[in-house]
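Reading is simple: each integer encodes one residue's backbone shape. An example follows:

___
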Amino acid sequence: MQSVRGIVASSHRRRDFAAGGDYHHTGMTLLQVTLPDNLKKAAEVRAKAGGYGSVDCYLASLIEADQLAPLTGELEAELLKGLASGPAVAITPQFFTDLKARVRQARTAA
């Protein structure tokens, strides 16, 4: 087994790790993770293939994605509710013109 030392952010701010980006953040905490050789190698391969600056950045992005999973589920549920709410409406420039006119008319009537 080999040890992989990673820096993981303690806040919830997002950072794009792609294209060799490093994870510069205040409130950093050192985390030491022990992995079997095959998992360490897999993390290195994935980090490089994904354009991460380091395995640390790759692991931090996985943890952040895991934190966002509940939000993603909520968003998907809301989108599905919208799809089930009725027929689709084309959003065109004319749609916005008509919408503005309806809002103006409602304001003057109130």
About this structure: The first strand starts at residue 2 and ends at 9.
